[in-house]
Design goal:
507 residues; 3-stranded mixed beta sheet; globular
């Protein structure tokens, strides 16, 4: 009976702090309205319900599943698809999620104790409200792989549900709307959603000031790493890397010194998926790149107080360190300005072809002890006939693993790989064990060249080790993919080219 599930949800919400006990009757009545019942559909009185906490409470996903089943059965949900269910269960959770002013007030109260207390509260609330769907995140396959650049993180993303053909058809015929303008706009907070836009009624945003501007702080619903957050402009303006970017990044780090924060590049191919809205990504996590050491220190004339060095990483990374942010910001801007207009035909680096710019950066800021650090990753998006998707982009021989853009998260050493890989690796494992011709299997034929390079007959494989070997090789392949994205290659010729650019900084 739906009333029992309503009570379970309210019990859950009170116990995790979404609701105050005094909200019980009000929330119950709001939920009965949603489920189109005029009174509780059980014999016991309202007062008796939820008076004793259960020894083992069901997960919110289980409660919502029961509620969705009722909504489908009674016709409240007319189309039983993944999108329709997500729209409706978000609507359910909106009725037990605190309003924005309450969340902001509590966040500010805890922030006065410490930034950690504040983010701990907000992260937990984002999970408890089911904005971050714990049950789906748990499905992601994650492992680590040792490489010459340190231990890299590998994720096969399974948290995004497969699109139902009925939803795809509905999206095709759905009314086009310009509200919200994109998935990052602040207008998403509380938005009901539609078939071609996710519901965000249980979504909350904390206002922050960076560089004197109004921005918002939220968590990513997909959580690729611990406390994966998004910092977004209150205005729908395109991403742009400039002097103010460095100021904003460090303003955020000063406010939340336990978090790193970085920006995707601002050009196609080397940029992120949403270039139309200025935003950053951060979180409470140490990536392999942050742990990577300086392999070649240097100084830049006019900025002698700043520690500078080339980082041992497959991509081309310059690290700047200082106890104060201003010198780092000034040198970061200088490096950006130099790189924007830098060309080196010998290294196949061209700032422009015709009027099209190619050079930009991926910047990442953090507090490391008493030092502020800025990692500047040099990027270039030039294409050729041989590499139509980008010269400094995953090359064709690894498209079986990843052919998407190398954005901020990948740059730092976390591979976000497509869900298809899970099934393909299982099929590939059996094919290798059975010594089948991989090229003749339609589902995995695109892995045949890659597998031939790995399994050349000299490597013993059996049912006990084949999966671990594949995981290891996927991780190593990811490191090579990152090297493809590096503008200065990690060989003698590439090192000389990198040195030429470093000298240019002091000229």
């Amino acid at each position: 009976m739906i009333s029992e599930h309503i009570d379970s949800l309210i019990d859950y919400s009170i116990n995790c702090g979404l609701l105050h006990p005094s909200d019980r009757i009000y929330a119950s009545n709001r939920l009965m309205e949603l489920f189109e019942i005029d009174e509780p559909d059980y014999a016991a009185s309202t007062e008796a319900q939820g008076s004793e906490p259960l020894e083992s409470e069901p997960a919110v996903s289980d409660i919502l599943e029961e509620m969705l089943a009722f909504a489908v059965k009674t016709g409240i949900i007319q189309s039983d698809t993944a999108v329709s269910r997500d729209l409706f269960d978000t609507r359910i959770m909106s009725l037990v999620t605190p309003n924005p002013s309450t969340v902001i007030s509590r966040f500010d109260e805890l922030y006065r104790i410490s930034p950690v207390h504040a983010t701990d509260y907000f992260y937990k609330l984002s999970q408890d409200s089911n904005y971050i769907r714990r049950d789906r995140i748990k499905k992601d396959i994650q492992w680590k792989t040792d490489t010459e650049y340190g231990e890299m993180d590998i994720t096969i993303n399974l948290s995004k549900p497969e699109k139902d053909p009925r939803d795809i058809a509905a999206q095709r015929h759905a009314k086009q709307s310009g509200y919200p303008k994109c998935l990052l706009c602040i207008e998403n907070e509380g938005y009901r959603g539609r078939v071609n836009h996710p519901a965000r009624q249980n979504h909350r945003i904390i206002p922050v000031k960076i560089n004197g501007q109004d921005w918002g702080f939220q968590y990513s619903p997909y959580v690729y790493y611990n406390e994966h957050c998004i910092v977004l402009s209150n205005r729908h303006v395109p991403m742009q890397i400039d002097h103010d970017t460095f100021v904003k990044l460090f303003d955020f780090v000063k406010a939340f010194p336990h978090y790193f924060v970085g920006s995707n590049a601002d050009l196609p191919i080397v940029g992120g998926s949403i270039l139309s809205h200025d935003h950053f990504q951060g979180g409470n996590y140490e990536f392999a790149m942050a742990r990577a050491q300086i392999e070649k220190p240097f100084k830049v004339s006019g900025f002698e107080s700043v520690e500078c060095g080339i980082v041992k990483w497959p991509m081309s990374v310059i690290r700047l360190r200082h106890r104060d942010t201003e010198p780092v910001i000034s040198l970061s801007r200088h490096i950006l300005d130099c790189w924007r207009k830098y060309s080196d035909p010998e290294a196949f680096i061209f700032a422009y072809t015709d009027d099209n710019p190619h050079n930009t950066i991926t910047p990442i800021a953090r507090k490391n002890g008493e030092f502020f650090e800025m990692d500047i990753v040099l990027r270039n998006n030039i294409t050729t006939d041989e590499h139509p998707m980008g010269v400094y982009h995953p090359h064709r021989e690894f498209h079986n693993i990843k052919k998407e853009n190398i954005g901020l998260i990948e740059v730092m050493g976390l591979a976000v790989l497509p869900s298809r890989l899970l099934e393909e690796m299982d099929i590939l494992s059996q094919a290798l064990l059975n010594k089948e011709d991989i090229s003749k299997n339609e589902k995995i034929s695109h892995h045949s060249e890659w597998a031939a390079r790995i399994f050349d007959g000299k490597r013993r494989i059996d049912s006990e080790n084949v999966h671990s070997i594949l995981k290891e090789e996927i991780g190593k392949s990811f490191a090579q993919i990152l090297s493809h994205a590096g503008v200065f290659k990690r060989d003698h010729k590439g090192a000389e080219a990198f040195d030429r650019f470093i000298r240019e900084l002091s000229s």
